[in-house]
Amino acid sequence: MGAVKDGEEMMLQKRNEELEKALKESKQREEKMKSELQRAWERLRVAEEAEERLCSQLGELEAEAVNHARDCHVRILSLMNELSQAHNHLHLHPVTN
């Protein structure tokens, strides 16, 4: 009966060692996954900050473009007015040779 008990103890001890090894490997995988998750969160944070900066820059560029378009429109209207005045002046005072 002692040999059977010793065999059971050996089997339980071996099973315990296998479980401990599996637990250790599981903890290592968990730590690796935590580390990967942390790196992913950091990349996400950096990407979000970059997106915010780009959106801000885009907004500034859009405002500049609108102002530039308005300035161009005012300049075009002014040139059209000058051209109209010159045209009217030529009709009133034709150039003769």
From TrEMBL:
- Mind listing the UniProt keywords for this protein, alphabetically? Coiled coil
GO-annotated biological processes:
cellular oxidant detoxification
Residues forming coiled coils: 5-64
Query: Which first-to-last residue range defines the signal peptide?
Result: none
Q: What is this protein called?
A: PROTEIN RESPONSE TO LOW SULFUR 1
